[in-house]
């Protein structure tokens, strides 16, 4: 399927929480009792889009919901459930999300212990791009080095400015081409202050007129 055709077929189906755009994974390498893919999930009209790497790293191979099941995913959910953020509520395996959407750069599941290859990421890039543009959020929150690298390369003009030191990039605000990008260090690497740092950054964004961010970033990106 070509990229233009995929974009043409994506429609904003707001009454579906999981895979609202009806994407179909191009391959199945999942293990027993695992979902073929962990599709995007949440509010399809969200202003905040949390972007993980792949199901093996950030969870959901059995629930089918990003950022569930495992420690990395639960840590991100903990941020989204913070009373001052209040993006997530309800069951952790199938949270109710408001103003927030979750997805992965590499949505397909792989057997435990396997990592996506460069060609795997490339094969799924058009799916991720189509979904990101359909959601059209104001704030992109890539989690971990792979997702941050991809988002900075594809949706900002500033990748060359950074060496991908996630400790330095964590919870910072970076102007993109029509987006504000706020990288999040992988939770398994968090220091004592990292959780509070991302919560504090999100508090500040929510307290601001962040919906103007998109227009400003478009003009200067």
TrEMBL record:
Keywords: 4Fe-4S, DNA damage, DNA repair, Hydrolase, Iron, Iron-sulfur, Metal-binding. Residues 1-29 are annotated as: Disordered. InterPro entries: UDG_Type-4/5, Uracil-DNA_glycosylase-like, Uracil-DNA_glycosylase-like_sf. Gene3D superfamilies: Uracil-DNA glycosylase-like domain. Residues 1-20 have a biased composition (Polar residues). PANTHER family: TYPE-4 URACIL-DNA GLYCOSYLASE, TYPE-5 URACIL-DNA GLYCOSYLASE. This is Uracil-DNA glycosylase-like domain-containing protein.
């Amino acid at each position: 399927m070509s990229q233009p055709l995929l974009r043409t077929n994506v429609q904003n189906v707001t009454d579906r929480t999981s895979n609202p755009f009806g994407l179909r994974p191009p391959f199945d390498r999942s293990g027993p009792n695992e979902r073929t893919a962990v599709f995007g999930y949440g509010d399809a009209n969200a202003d905040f889009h949390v972007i993980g790497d792949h199901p093996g790293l950030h969870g959901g191979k059995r629930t089918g919901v990003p950022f569930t099941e495992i420690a990395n995913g639960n840590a991100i959910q903990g941020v989204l459930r913070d009373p001052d953020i209040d993006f997530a509520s309800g069951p952790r395996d199938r949270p109710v999300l408001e103003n927030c959407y979750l997805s992965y750069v590499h949505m397909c599941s792989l057997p435990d212990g396997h990592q996506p290859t460069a060609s795997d990421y490339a094969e799924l890039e058009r799916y991720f791009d189509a979904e990101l543009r359909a959601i059209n959020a104001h704030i992109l929150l890539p989690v971990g080095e792979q997702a941050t690298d991809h988002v900075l390369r594809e949706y900002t003009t500033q990748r060359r400015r950074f060496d991908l030191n996630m400790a330095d990039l964590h919870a910072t605000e970076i102007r993109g081409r029509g987006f504000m990008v706020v990288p999040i260090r992988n939770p398994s690497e968090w220091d004592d202050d990292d959780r509070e740092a991302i919560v504090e950054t999100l508090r500040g964004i929510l307290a601001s007129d962040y919906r103007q961010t998109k227009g400003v970033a478009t003009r200067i990106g």
